[in-house]
Amino acid sequence: MAQAGFSLSVTNRGNDFTIGGAGVLDDTGMLSLRKAIEDSCANEAATVALELLEVTDLRPEAIAALIEAGDYCRERGVPLTMRAGEGFLKILSDAGYGPDLSRLN
Questions:
Q1: pLDDT per position as a tens digit, 27-67
Q2: What is the CB neighbour count within 10 angstroms for residue 12?
Q3: Which end of the chain is more exposed for a tag (fewer CB within 10 A), N or C?
Q4: pTM of the predicted model, to two decimals?
Q5: Domains and CATH numbers, the chain
Q6: Whether residue 105 has pLDDT greater than 80
Q7: In degrees rounded to 5, what are phi and psi of residue 34?
Q8: How far apart are the C-alpha atoms of 103 and 6, rounded to whole Å?
Q9: CA–CA separation, 13 vs 24, rounded Å?
Q10: CA distance 18 to 28
Q11: What single string gives the DSSP state of each residue in 1-59?
């Protein structure tokens, strides 16, 4: 059976970056998402908004890489926000992380 892939879009208005994704977020899709996040964070005074409402499946192997990408932004002082579906956010919450990819207390 053919597996749906992950599609990625990046738009920006000045230093405000919106990174959208749709489909299955697995380790392969996470590679392109991580690169887009790092490239966006490289811009001075950047903000990054992840729009992942169209992600249909968050694979376990992508969770750690997604958390690391959030850490990457925070280490550089880049504000990161994320919008995702309820199931996606539940998986993150069950792993101990909030919608901004930071550790829940």
A1: 999 999 999 999 999 998 999 999 999 999 988 889 999 99
A2: 14
A3: N
A4: 0.90
A5: 21-94 (3.30.750.24)
A6: no
A7: -60, -45
A8: 26
A9: 27
A10: 20
A11: -PPP-EEEEEEEETTEEEEEEEEEE-HHHHHHHHHHHHHHHTSTT-EEEEEEEEEEEE-
